[in-house]
UniProtKB/TrEMBL annotation:
Residues 75-119 form the S1 motif domain. This is DNA-directed RNA polymerase subunit. One of its GO terms (cellular component) is P-body. It holds the Pfam family S1. One of its GO terms (biological process) is positive regulation of nuclear-transcribed mRNA poly(A) tail shortening. The lineage of its organism: Eukaryota, Viridiplantae, Streptophyta, Embryophyta, Tracheophyta. Residues 4-60 form the RNA polymerase Rpb7-like N-terminal domain. It is found in: Nucleus. InterPro entries: NA-bd_OB-fold, RNA_pol_Rpb7-like_N_sf, Rpb7-like, Rpb7-like_N, S1_domain. Keywords: DNA-directed RNA polymerase, Nucleus, Transcription.
Length: 130
């Protein structure tokens, strides 16, 4: 996905490594964040464009418009995800699919289905009974 962000950079980061400092700040600020519109930003894969900077009056900071490519993860209702079960209790189970923690209540599981632990550690599956 291609996203845009205005990045503010302190004057001490100006100079020969300006681009590297800007990209480093972008990665630190954006990777691992979540927004309702785009989901989780897993990684920045490339920089498409860094626009001309605009000096902020009275501060010396410069705002750069940056257009970048990134990998996002946004699950949606009804999507089937492969997840790792992290905890099972009498109320249901918790699982993780990437950065998302999932809880499935026992009340959502049909009566003719039950939990079964597999031979592989941390592997749980459902088995139809009846």
């Amino acid at each position: 996905m291609v996203l845009e962000r205005n990045m503010q950079l302190h004057p001490r980061h100006f100079g020969r490594n300006l681009r590297e400092n800007l990209v480093s700040k972008l990665m630190k600020d954006v990777e691992g964040t979540c927004s309702g519109r785009h989901g989780f930003v897993a990684a920045i894969t490339g920089i498409e464009n860094i626009g001309k900077g605009l000096i902020r009056d009275g501060t010396g900071f410069v705002t750069f418009p940056v257009k970048y490519q990134c990998v996002v993860f946004r699950p949606f209702k009804g999507e089937i995800l492969e997840a790792v079960v992290t905890m099972v209790n009498k109320m249901g189970f918790f699982a993780e699919a990437g950065p998302v923690q999932i809880f499935v209540s026992n009340h959502l599981i049909p009566d003719d289905m039950e939990f079964q632990s597999g031979d592989i550690p941390n592997y749980t599956y459902f088995r139809w009974i009846g």
